[in-house]
Design goal:
Blueprint: E1 38-43, H1 50-57, H2 59-66, E2 68-74, E3 78-83, E4 86-95, H3 102-107, E5 113-117, H4 118-126, E6 131-136, E7 138-140, E8 142-146, H5 155-164, E9 169-173, H6 179-191, E10 195-196, E11 206-210, H7 217-222, E12 228-232, H8 235-242, E13 246-250, E14 266-271, H9 272-277, H10 279-298, H11 300-311, H12 315-321, E15 325-327, H13 333-348, H14 361-368, H15 372-383
Parallel strand pairs: 1-4, 1-5, 9-11, 9-12, 10-11
Antiparallel strand pairs: 2-3, 3-4, 5-14, 6-14, 7-15, 8-12, 8-13
Helix pairs in contact: 1-10, 1-11, 4-13, 8-12, 10-11, 10-15, 11-12
């Protein structure tokens, strides 16, 4: 990746000194009796978080090439954050169910730093949660998948069928805060398709169904509870591999035209008390994730093997899935603009209703993003000649 060119992110800070800050809790890092700081990182079992998997699995590569790395204590559970042989902190990995659930779990204090969905964090900030998006991580990588016998093989054909079908189409999604129903509903709104989430509304052409977890989507298709679903990879690839579904559209290609290209999906985020009290360790963790992202983009075949291993899915599934994604921690102009599209779409669909309701996208940026740790990480890497 090239040099970072975004100057505008320098103005993006936390809500301010007047914001209510929680005191350091038992979940946050500490130094006592010679112990290293300790904190917890939330992650989700999906290939959008491959940078974390690579950081943990390829730690010797990180150590030998960059000097900052995650040294395993208990594989996939506990790691030492190390720089040049010096232990900086201990990090516990906490698996959470769904990138859209990550901010809820983090707000509840289950962990301090998390990988999860961009709109989901925005939603929780709007609700008053004391957290911020701390860096980009991943873009795109989601799809509309339907039953193999569904009478459409493209989005255009889906629209024609939905507008003329005599039977309601049932489309599942994993969580109301996920990016995927948001894109699908905005696209149907654009096409004039009447959709609902109320099962009693038989006049709607499409019924959107909360399946309460990505793991329920493929079984829902197999059991004919659903005609299709919208979700992140690797579920669409896995449905194809198992022969129980066909992907008819990438979500980034849905209308309104050009809205979703390069759309932010997963990001890193942190509780504000973590940023305030444990800034330096957050900087080093972002450096590790940056190097892991570079590894994905330069050693893609190995990265797919790592993802396959962590997720417990066949390698062939990840070879289908991961090319649909973009892995980058660069907050470019395009990334910010795509985030503004998210914000406007969330407002249109009533997903923004409180703190951010009267804000422009640019005003919301200052409340949603805090890239101070990322700024410091990038500055450090530039000083070391690693960026």
């Amino acid at each position: 990746m090239g040099k970072h060119t975004m100057n505008r992110r320098r103005f993006i800070k936390t809500v301010g000194a007047g914001s209510t800050m929680l005191a350091a809790s038992n979940l946050l890092s500490y130094k006592a009796f010679g112990q290293a700081p300790f904190f917890r990182v939330g992650w989700v079992k999906q290939d959008h978080h491959t940078s974390l998997f690579v950081a943990a699995s390829e730690w010797e590569f990180m150590r030998d090439n960059y000097g900052v790395y995650l040294e395993p204590v208990r594989e996939r559970e506990l790691y030492n954050l190390v720089e040049n042989g010096q232990k900086l902190a201990e990090i516990e990995f906490i698996e959470t169910l769904g990138a859209s659930n990550m901010p809820r779990n983090m707000a509840q204090g289950q962990f301090d730093f998390g990988l999860g969905g961009h709109p989901a964090v925005t939603f929780f900030v709007d609700q008053g949660a004391e957290m911020s998006i701390t860096s980009p991580l991943h873009s795109e990588g989601a799809a509309l998948t339907v039953n193999p016998d569904f009478p459409a093989d493209s989005w255009d054909e889906f629209v024609v069928y939905a507008l003329n079908a005599d039977k309601q189409i049932r489309i599942g999604y994993k969580s109301p805060a996920a990016v995927h129903p948001l894109i699908m509903e905005r696209a149907m709104q654009f096409e004039g398709i009447h959709f609902t989430e109320d099962a009693s509304d038989q006049n709607a052409q499409v019924l959107m169904i909360n399946m309460k977890g990505a793991g329920n989507l493929i079984p829902g298709l197999q059991q004919s509870l659903l005609d299709g679903f919208v979700v992140n990879q690797p579920q669409p690839a896995l449905a194809e591999f198992q022969g129980v579904g066909k992907t008819i559209a990438r979500l980034q290609d849905l209308p309104p035209p050009g809205w979703w290209a390069g759309h932010p999906c997963c990001i890193t985020s942190a509780r504000k008390d973590f940023i305030q009290n444990h800034f330096d360790n957050g900087v080093k963790l972002l450096e590790v994730l940056y190097f892991a992202t570079e590894f994905i983009n330069t050693n893609f075949d190995r990265a797919t093997e790592v993802a396959s291993d962590w997720l417990g899915v066949p390698l062939e599934v990840e070879q289908i899935s991961m090319p649909n994604s973009q892995y980058s921690m660069e907050p470019t102009t395009q990334w910010f603009n795509a985030g503004h599209v998210w914000f406007d779409a969330m407002k249109d669909l009533g997903k923004i209703s409180q703190l951010l309701l009267d804000k422009t996208p640019e005003q919301a940026d200052a409340l949603v993003y805090d890239f101070s740790m990322l700024d410091a990480a990038f500055a450090d890497l530039v000083d070391k000649g690693l960026r």
